[in-house]
Design a protein that fits this description.
It is a single chain. The protein is built from two helices and 13 strands; from the N terminus they run H-E-E-E-E-E-E-E-E-E-E-E-E-E-H. By secondary structure, the protein is mainly beta. The protein has a six-stranded mixed sheet with strand order 9-8-10-11-12-13, with helices on one face. Strands 6-5-4-1-7 form a five-stranded antiparallel sheet, with no helix packed on it.
């Protein structure tokens, strides 16, 4: 695929990884982090010179890269990042899932909070809160006054994905 075709696939919110030619990415501290330790990335935007701003989920930092240094994980690839929050408010990355073919329109962050609370946040800031039934390992939904819309259904699905490794 040529650079122009690649650039057309790389939009804000696209899920990406390092291209095969790249060995690592420089962290803000100056260390070279190997690609396999970065985790999948999300395109946060682009600079005026054409480089892409990528947020690396596992490494926990953003960097600017040339479009030829990254590859898309698919047009329909979306990322679900799952954090565990303890009672003191400390947040720890548990895992991430790149999902394709499920019809997601957005990338999601899921926080597993104390008291069986699950907070689901879309990457644009919208959020939903659910509870988990610990016996049946199922999500309890709020009493929606109308049938849930597509965004509600997608948030619920992201929450359910967090329950399974």
């Amino acid at each position: 695929m040529d650079i122009q075709s690649t650039r057309q696939l790389l939009n804000k919110g696209s899920v990406v990884a390092c291209a095969g030619i790249l060995h690592g990415v420089q962290s803000p501290e100056g260390d070279l982090i190997p690609c396999e330790r970065l985790g999948p990335g999300i395109i946060e935007g682009s600079a005026s010179d054409g480089r892409m701003l990528i947020r690396w989920t596992t490494a926990g930092f953003s960097s600017l890269l040339e479009p030829g240094d990254i590859r898309t994980l698919g047009l329909d690839a979306r990322l679900v990042v799952i954090h565990k929050c303890d009672k003191d408010g400390q947040i720890k990355l548990l895992r991430h899932k790149v999902v394709t073919g499920v019809g997601f329109s957005h990338n999601w962050t899921v926080e597993l909070r104390p008291g069986n609370v699950i907070r689901v946040q879309r990457w644009d800031g919208h959020a939903w809160t659910f509870t988990k039934n610990p016996i049946f390992m199922r999500i309890t939904t709020p009493a929606w006054s109308a049938p849930p819309d597509d965004d509600d259904a997608e948030a619920l699905t992201a929450a359910e994905l967090s329950l399974f490794k």
